[in-house]
């Protein structure tokens, strides 16, 4: 069974199409980078894959089911933190939120063990009792990733996980994403993601151009050369 299957997807909020005829699929444990210009529809696509928005037409399946019916196997790292930094909430509390399910009002011993495990794995255990506001941008981002992973999802979707982080922090986050042995879809403006071990790249600008290969090299397709974000590829690869 495919991890992700998108067929003839169209979407509009109002009159204009935001996404047009998007088609792609991902196998289990594949890593897809989603890039493209501002307003191109990346976040919208992610919201559809998460089941937050319904396609206008077309089909989206996550491990064989509509996203809404499979939300328990999807982890999500939002673009912006959805909690106020003024709330004195600790790192451990935020990570535990990832274990909440419908109709569940308390955390079990297993939930707490899993939270400790993931904090260790992401090397942020030492911040467990710290308030989220007292962390750096990169550390905070790792906490959001930990919250997404603590439920042991089969697939994780991330919206700009390296934005507003310094280069060292960005490298750490990308190393971490690369090392995860689950299906990954990562929206990014960070060109360095293209130099990572991605299986597929989707360039989204209303329509999608998909690049794939057993071991992907920097794409030479003209669509990628047009992306202002990857200007340097013009010299490196596109020969412009
Ligand atoms: N709730 C909404 N209602 C109406 N239009 C919307 C809504 N959300 C987004 N849009 C529009 O849909 C288009 C795609 O937006 P989207 O946020 O998906 O792009 P994006 O590629 O993620 O952009 P960015 O790189 O700037 O984050 C834009 O033109 C945006 O203005």
Automatic annotation (TrEMBL):
Key word Transport present: yes
Any one GO molecular function term: ATP hydrolysis activity
Domain ABC transporter, first and last residues per copy: 4-231
Keyword list, A-Z: ATP-binding, Nucleotide-binding, Transport
Similarity annotation: Belongs to the ABC transporter superfamily.
PANTHER family (alphabetical): METAL TRANSPORT SYSTEM ATP-BINDING PROTEIN TM_0124-RELATED
UniProt name for this protein: Metal ABC transporter ATP-binding protein
Organism field: Caminibacter pacificus
């Amino acid at each position: 069974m495919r991890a992700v299957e998108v067929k003839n997807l169209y979407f509009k909020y109002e009159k204009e199409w935001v996404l047009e005829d998007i088609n792609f699929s991902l196998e289990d444990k594949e890593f897809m980078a989603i890039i493209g210009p501002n307003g191109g529809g990346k976040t919208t696509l992610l919201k559809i894959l998460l089941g937050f928005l319904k396609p206008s037409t077309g089909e989206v399946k996550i491990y064989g089911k509509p996203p809404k019916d499979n939300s328990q196997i999807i982890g999500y790292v939002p673009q912006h933190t959805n909690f106020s930094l003024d709330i004195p909430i600790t790192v451990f509390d935020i990570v535990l939120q990832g274990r909440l399910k419908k109709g569940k009002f308390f955390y079990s011993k297993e939930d707490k063990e899993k939270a400790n495990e993931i904090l260790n794995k992401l090397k942020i255990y030492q911040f467990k009792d710290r308030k989220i506001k007292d962390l750096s941008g990169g550390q905070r981002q790792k906490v959001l990733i930990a919250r997404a992973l603590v439920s042991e999802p089969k697939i994780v979707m991330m919206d700009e996980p390296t934005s507003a982080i310094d280069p060292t922090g960005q490298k750490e986050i990308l190393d971490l994403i690369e090392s995860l042995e689950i299906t990954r879809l990562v929206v990014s403006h960070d060109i360095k993601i293209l130099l990572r071990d991605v299986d597929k790249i989707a360039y989204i600008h209303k329509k999608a151009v998909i690049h794939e290969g057993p071991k992907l090299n920097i794409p030479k397709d003209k669509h990628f050369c047009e992306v202002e974000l990857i200007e340097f590829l013009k010299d490196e690869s596109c020969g412009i």
